[in-house]
Amino acid sequence: MEALHKKIREEGIVLSDQVLKVDAFLNHQIDPVLMQQIGDEFARLFADSGVSKIVTIEASGIAPAVMAGLRLGVPVIFARKHQSLTLTENLLSASVYSFTKQTETTVSVSPRHLNSSDRVLIIDDFLANGKASQALISIIKQAGATVAGIGIVIEKSFQGGRAELDAQGYHVESLARVKSLVGGQVTFVD
To answer: Are the beta carbons of 181 and 13 closer than 8 angstroms?
Structure first.
């Protein structure tokens, strides 16, 4: 997706050979025009997958997931990182380790929003080691639902997440596949 590649080149900041900061347009400040294009692209890529729901993790996955949900005409569920007084029933939960935050968090979804007839599209901002996707897959399986596919805005292809998801047979589509961040330069997979 050329518009995303351009935005990463122009506004992304390489913090190390492992970390790309994109808070100017994706996970702090959001570029709504780019998010609409991203949602359109995910809708195109998964149009024939029978998606009935989209699941993401708060907060950075919400914007692209909502735009895809709008285009596909399906509800968007975000796995909550923090419990509240209103989120109390027998929750579907999984632990996820954040590569950038270096912390483990439990994420949860109400079982009222997922059931065995759902075909679920996972959408997330980044794919690094695949831990967020694996947590969402666990939650979807706990509900008896089916994973229809996984849509990733930015994939760090030099880390192992994609290989693990591919080995498990999941349909993964990444809009920008970063090959390397070495030397402060972003290079993309061709």
So the answer is: no
